């Protein structure tokens, strides 16, 4: 079998003095004191770690990289060859991208140390049935190894879970990390909400950015569309659609909701996986968190006390204000129909059963 030669990724690996470049430019003082000596203040670099270098993880890393959201990106994966190859592939594009340091390897603790944001992506599509139970157990086993290492090396980090079943895994990550709930977030229905916005935007002939619409609850079959709160330019959308479309009844709304919930299935069926939309969705969350944007996203958060009639410590998607400190607040009161409220409670109860079964 032909062995592959490991190519150098830096001049230091080629034998050049790593400190020689320090003298290439002469430093100019940024301020002058009475004694004539200058002092230079440097901004603390922002570090993002992506754990899992599969299709989803790399879509996230690539989107964060091109949007200039980090000064350093650490890629971590159990497959040493793959993750090094992904690192080199991105490094080779350095002349076309913002200046970002990219490191990669298999050592979670060493590579993620000092992270501002750690993003956990694990393999597997949305779980269903018995296969879903097996996948859940497998992913929780990985979290038991990964999350404590991230917490040890980055005790002030924000933790963003993208893997499915995201609500249960966000709960597991919260318990395993020891972090306050405000610093553990699941990607939740942020992407589901984008799909809903796109469908409505196409129908109304506006940009998806101008549609305000949220999917909440479980990231799964029971996700709830907040129809009464959907608006464009301050105008309520539901009442307009019901006035202009004789067939726009409850059945039609349920059909749209199902199309949104199952939106990834066609993509996965056609190309084998979904990645780019997830990458952009997670990058939007990273921007709000790292740049302290305080934007509202429907993400999976500790929902205890926010769902009428339910007091379990479950993670469900609710409109949450995100900033540098993580979850800065959650929508206190949602306008829900009796059926929607009942759906949320049932989802919370089911998810709580799964969480209890983890033994964490």
From TrEMBL:
- Which InterPro entries does the record associate with it? L-lactate/malate_DH, Lactate/malate_DH_C, Lactate/malate_DH_N, Lactate_DH/Glyco_Ohase_4_C, NAD(P)-bd_dom_sf
PANTHER family noted in UniProt: L-2-HYDROXYCARBOXYLATE DEHYDROGENASE (NAD(P)(+)), L-LACTATE DEHYDROGENASE
Of which family is this protein a member?
A: Belongs to the LDH/MDH superfamily.
Taxonomically, which superkingdom? Eukaryota
Which one of the record's GO molecular function terms can you name? L-lactate dehydrogenase (NAD+) activity
Q: Where is the active site?
A: 219 (proton acceptor)
In this chain, NAD(+) is annotated as bound at 52-57, 77, 139, 162-164
| GO BP terms | lactate metabolic process
Keywords, alphabetical: NAD, Oxidoreductase
- Coiled-coil intervals, chain numbering: none
Name of the protein described by the UniProt record: L-lactate dehydrogenase
Q: Which residues form the Lactate/malate dehydrogenase N-terminal domain?
A: 46-186
What organism is this sequence from? Answer: Lolium multiflorum (Italian ryegrass)
Every copy of the Lactate/malate dehydrogenase C-terminal domain together lies at: 189-353
């Amino acid at each position: 079998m032909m062995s592959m030669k490991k190519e150098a990724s830096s001049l230091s690996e080629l034998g050049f003095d790593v400190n020689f470049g320090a003298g290439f430019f002469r430093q100019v003082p940024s301020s002058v004191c009475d004694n004539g000596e200058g002092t230079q203040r440097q901004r603390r670099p922002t570090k993002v770690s992506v754990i899992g270098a599969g299709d989803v993880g790399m879509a996230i890393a690539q989107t964060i990289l091109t949007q200039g959201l980090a000064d350093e990106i650490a890629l971590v994966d159990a497959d040493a060859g793959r993750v090094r190859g992904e690192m080199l592939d991105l490094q080779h594009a350095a002349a076309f991208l913002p200046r970002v340091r990219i490191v990669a390897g298999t050592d979670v603790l060493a590579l993620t140390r000092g992270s501002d944001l750690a993003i956990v992506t694990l393999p597997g599509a949305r779980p269903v049935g018995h296969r879903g139970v097996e996948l859940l157990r497998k992913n929780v086993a990985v979290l038991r190894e990964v999350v404590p290492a991230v917490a040890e090396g980055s005790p002030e980090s924000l933790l963003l879970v993208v893997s499915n079943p995201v609500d249960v895994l966000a709960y597991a990550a919260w318990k395993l990390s020891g972090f306050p709930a405000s610093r553990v977030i699941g990607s939740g229905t942020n992407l589901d909400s984008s799909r809903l916005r796109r469908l409505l935007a196409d129908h109304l002939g506006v940009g998806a950015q101008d549609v305000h619409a949220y999917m909440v609850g479980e990231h799964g079959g029971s996700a709830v569309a907040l129809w009464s709160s959907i608006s464009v330019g301050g105008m309520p959308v539901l009442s307009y659609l019901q006035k202009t479309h004789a067939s726009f009844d409850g059945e039609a709304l349920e059909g749209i909701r199902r199309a949104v919930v199952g939106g990834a299935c066609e993509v996965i069926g056609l190309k084998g996986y979904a990645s780019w939309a997830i990458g952009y969705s997670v990058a939007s969350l990273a921007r709000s968190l790292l740049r302290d944007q305080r934007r509202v996203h429907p993400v999976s958060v500790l929902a205890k006390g926010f769902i009428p009639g339910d007091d379990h410590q479950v993670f469900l998607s609710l409109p949450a204000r995100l900033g540098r400190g993580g979850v800065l607040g959650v929508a206190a009161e949602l306008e829900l129909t009796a059926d929607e409220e009942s759906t949320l409670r049932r989802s919370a109860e089911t998810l709580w059963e799964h969480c209890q079964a983890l033994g964490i």
